[in-house]
């Protein structure tokens, strides 16, 4: 099977697989009212076997990196088995997850033993009270202990995601930079993205990542060149810091030109873009092992519909009501 590619000659090495929509946090920009089931009960998310099959199909078509996300992926009781199932594919060299960090202190060593290679933890503020206000959970110290546990378990770098918001963290760059001076953390500021449910918050809080970029450049930070299965982050480094800073700016011109990822939702729909239209169902082809070719063919054909860019600039957020259901 040849590699997945689209009409704009982009190749897709990277699968972001959501394993659950459920989340125990209530981040203001994502699930401000908490998780509410939408005609889906918790048992109807992809099973371990279905996850095994879908990742096998992607691996056979050249996928090198899988990110497990959600909702909160670590809320799945079989999460460690999911990592192990993805690891069965030798071609998948990176197995990453994005987590709110809630279970990290307890479980990160077993995730690593099962094959997890990369870890992104969301931390929107280094102030415990503000962290609580943003996430609805008084878990700042637990998440910090989780990051320490990740290093103790042998991860040499941890990525920390922080959604850039005008009121909360745009003026706290100095605090964040002090935190990563002696820690091998890649701190990633993600520009707030507009979602169907988040229009008012977006208008209030959106601030461009260029504000951070300008400050970094003034302070002697330099841009690193990117490798092909990297995400879209612009990564900056500085000789005096062990940590790095990444900027994810989806509103920047040409953001989509380097797109290398596809998404599968927790109910098994293929999403060609985070802000695309309705997903393409794959689940009917995940029930048995002998459908691998048909599955790959459906994904390859669907890629013909992938658009050149998202339409966020026109205020079109697609069907994406919030990012918890296809995993950000
Ligand atoms: N629950 C996990 C977590 O929070 O890390 C994984 C899922 S979460 C949807 C994935 C990432 O999307 C998180 O880093 C989160 O901060 C980010 N995110 C959610 N909503 C966003 C929005 N409207 N704009 C930008 N980033 C967002
Ligand atoms: Fe949950 Fe992650 Fe969304 Fe926060 S960003 S509500 S932790 S899914």
TrEMBL record:
Q: What does this protein do?
A: Catalyzes the cyclization of GTP to (8S)-3',8-cyclo-7,8-dihydroguanosine 5'-triphosphate.
Binding-site positions, [4Fe-4S] cluster 2: 256, 259, 273
What catalytic activity does the UniProt entry give for this protein? GTP + AH2 + S-adenosyl-L-methionine = (8S)-3',8-cyclo-7,8-dihydroguanosine 5'-triphosphate + 5'-deoxyadenosine + L-methionine + A + H(+)
Q: Which InterPro entries match?
A: Aldolase_TIM, Elp3/MiaA/NifB-like_rSAM, MoaA, MoaA-like, MoaA_NifB_PqqE_Fe-S-bd_CS, MoaA_twitch, MoCo_biosynth_MoaA/MoaC, rSAM
Pathway(s) it belongs to:
Cofactor biosynthesis; molybdopterin biosynthesis
Binding annotation for [4Fe-4S] cluster 1 = 23, 27, 30
Residues recorded as binding S-adenosyl-L-methionine, renumbered to this chain, are 29, 71, 122, 193
Q: What class of enzyme is it?
A: lyase
Keywords on this record? Answer: 4Fe-4S, GTP-binding, Iron, Iron-sulfur, Lyase, Metal-binding, Molybdenum cofactor biosynthesis, Nucleotide-binding, S-adenosyl-L-methionine
Q: Which GO terms describe its molecular function?
A: GTP 3',8'-cyclase activity
The protein's required cofactor(s) are namely:
[4Fe-4S] cluster
SUBUNIT field: Monomer and homodimer.
- SUPFAM superfamilies reported in the protein's UniProt record: Radical SAM enzymes
Q: What is this protein called?
A: GTP 3',8-cyclase
What does the cofactor section's free text say about binding? Binds 2 [4Fe-4S] clusters. Binds 1 [4Fe-4S] cluster coordinated with 3 cysteines and an exchangeable S-adenosyl-L-methionine and 1 [4Fe-4S] cluster coordinated with 3 cysteines and the GTP-derived substrate.
Q: Which organism is it from?
A: Candidatus Pantoea multigeneris
Segments crossing the lipid bilayer: none
Q: SMART domains this protein is in?
A: Elp3 (SM00729)
Radical SAM core domain location: 7-233
Q: Does the keyword Cell membrane apply?
A: no
- For this protein, the Enzyme Commission number is 4.1.99.22
Which HAMAP family does the entry link to?
Answer: MoaA_B (MF_01225_B)
Positions binding GTP in this chain are 16, 67, 98, 159, 261-263
Xref: Gene3D superfamilies: Aldolase class I (3.20.20.70)
